[in-house]
């Protein structure tokens, strides 16, 4: 007899899933996609490879749950109602995440696989959405709808390039400068 979706989950299964997802998220952030194998996750979580494969038959299945966990754990700075200050806080949070070196390793692995795998493309989109949620929210609250995407691309792109490609610190002064440049071309909505 099949379990219905309203049947309680066996606590052992729930614990196994929690442990394996935590181990896969940690491995993904620390070592990147290539090192996050079923064997490595099983070793970290303390379960057999067979158990991991039973719940996550493919690497993309494993990565999907790991990335969902990483995205759920993301925190956003609170918005205070001042467009410039809120953008500064959101971009500083993004820069801090990038400076830790974990997110760029994660994105590199996802981007590399996205060209060949639809599941990896979905993961890439989820990561981008999560990484830009704070900035997007501030822009949506403070700008006309037509200005949100161009400003998001300019601001997030500048932080990404500075932190990952150039390997430079994303200073407060740099963030202020890019915000000033992006906002100089748009008209904030009333109250901002």
List the helices and strands and how they pair.
Layout: H1 11-31, H2 38-45, H3 49-55, H4 59-73, H5 83-99, H6 102-114, H7 118-142, H8 145-165, H9 172-183
What does this structure look like?
With 192 residues, the protein is mainly alpha-helical. It has two domains: 11-58, Homeodomain-like (Arc Repressor Mutant, subunit A), CATH 1.10.10.60; 74-183, Tetracycline Repressor, domain 2. It has nine helices and no strands. Helix 5 crosses helix 9 (172-183). It is elongated, with a radius of gyration of 20 Å. This is HTH tetR-type domain-containing protein. GO terms for molecular function: DNA-binding transcription factor activity; transcription cis-regulatory region binding. InterPro entries: Homeodomain-like_sf, HTH-type_TetR-like_transc_reg, HTH_TetR, Tet_transcr_reg_TetR-rel_C_sf, TetR_C.
What's this entry about, in short?
GO terms for molecular function: DNA-binding transcription factor activity; transcription cis-regulatory region binding. This protein has 192 residues and is an all-alpha fold.
In CATH, the homologous superfamily of the largest domain goes by the name: Tetracycline Repressor, domain 2
Helix content: over 70%
- Quantity of strands, as a count: 0
Secondary-structure arrangement, i.e. CATH architecture of the largest domain = Orthogonal Bundle
The overall pLDDT average reads 86
Taking all Cα atoms into account, the compactness measure Rg is 20 Å
Spans with pLDDT under 50 lasting ≥5 residues? none
Subunit organisation of the chains: single chain
- Which geometry do the CA atoms define? elongated
What fold name stands as the CATH topology of the largest domain? Tetracycline Repressor, domain 2
Biggest sheet character: none
Instruction: State the CATH class of the largest domain.
Output: Mainly Alpha
Distance between the termini: 59 Å
Strand content: under 5%
